[in-house]
Design a protein that fits this description.
289 residues; alpha+beta; 2 domains; nine-stranded mixed sheet; six-stranded antiparallel sheet; globular; binds pyridoxal-5'-phosphate
């Protein structure tokens, strides 16, 4: 199957898509990224992803390669150049190519690359049996609000999760609070309220997290953004949120069953509301077409 990538203004067959070895993304992980989902031609919360991309670029002083509306057009073009109806579009911006020095002599031109893959649906097993997670002390840097391409800690977290036959690693702060996963936010139901770590430098401002909180509030569920522990009395449910998987129940953490070891009611309800929201977006698009 022929896939097409975008590299600095050019659409190329994926196997020919290259970036220079002195690109600072390769040398220093000096860049940021986004993963955007597109379902049947409808981009999910594209504006929010673009705003977060701008936030990440500004935080590390990289100029956006083009205005956001142009970025949206390029994202749409690369989606249409690939064969998937349901796709995830990977967008990466790095500081560009320069002789290797921490501080480049002259400001390089930022690199923009994009690739497209099929959006995998969460397996039925994960939805009916729930995912499992382990917890580890957070070994990442102190600006997790920036969507940096430096993902070594997340790779190590996932490796350890796999070694222990779990699906995700949830990072803990020094007091043992549940922060987020390697590529997911973590939410809990505690005494009937939806609880998740507040937005700060220790977690990414997930687009799906934001939507989950919004949907919960719209349906009259109390939302509390505060640090929380796995061992709190009243912990009933736990879930992961991400663009690529939506909301997924977590039934075991460090081998301990959450909510009796079956997916929680509110978790599944939130997942349904999220899917309904995506259907509405699709219908809006058809309506406007
Ligand atoms: C560390 C981290 N937290 C949370 C998320 C979920 O964010 P979103 O819902 O915007 O995909 C991601 C996604 O890649 C992530 O890498």
């Amino acid at each position: 199957m022929q896939l097409t990538a975008y590299v600095n203004g050019n659409m190329l067959p994926l196997q020919d898509a290259c970036i220079h070895i002195e690109d600072r993304g390769f040398q220093f992980a000096d860049g940021v990224y986004e993963v955007i989902a597109c379902i049947n031609g409808t981009f999910l919360d594209l504006d929010m992803h673009l705003q977060r991309l701008r936030y990440s670029c500004e935080a590390i002083a990289i100029d956006l390669p083009c205005p956001l509306h142009e970025m949206a057009a390029r994202i749409e073009a690369i989606y249409h150049a690939n064969p998937f109806e349901d796709a995830m579009i990977y967008v990466q911006i790095t500081r560009g190519r320069a002789a290797r020095a921490h501080l480049p002599n002259t400001m390089p031109t930022p690199s923009l690359i994009m690739t497209v893959r099929e959006l995998p649906a969460p397996s039925c097993e994960t939805l009916t049996q729930g995912a499992s997670a382990i917890t580890l002390d957070d070994i990442r840097w102190k600006r997790c609000d920036i969507k940096s391409i430096a993902l070594l800690a997340s790779v190590m977290g996932r490796q350890e999760a796999r070694r222990r036959q779990a699906d995700e690693t949830i990072w803990l702060d020094e007091q043992g609070h549940m922060l987020e996963g390697c590529s997911t936010n973590v939410l809990a139901v505690i005494d009937g309220s939806l609880v998740t770590h507040p937005l700060d430098h220790q977690v990414l401002g997930g687009i799906t997290r934001r939507l989950a909180l919004q949907l919960a509030r719209q349906h009259g569920i109390r939302v509390v953004e505060r640090p929380w522990h796995l061992h709190e009395a009243g912990l009933q449910e736990c879930m992961l949120s991400s663009t690529t998987q939506g909301i997924v129940p977590v039934c075991y953490i460090d081998g301990q069953a959450i909510g009796g070891g079956t997916p929680g009611k509110l978790t599944l309800q939130l997942r349904d509301w999220l899917l309904q929201h995506f259907d509405e977006l699709r219908q809006e698009k058809t309506h406007h077409a």
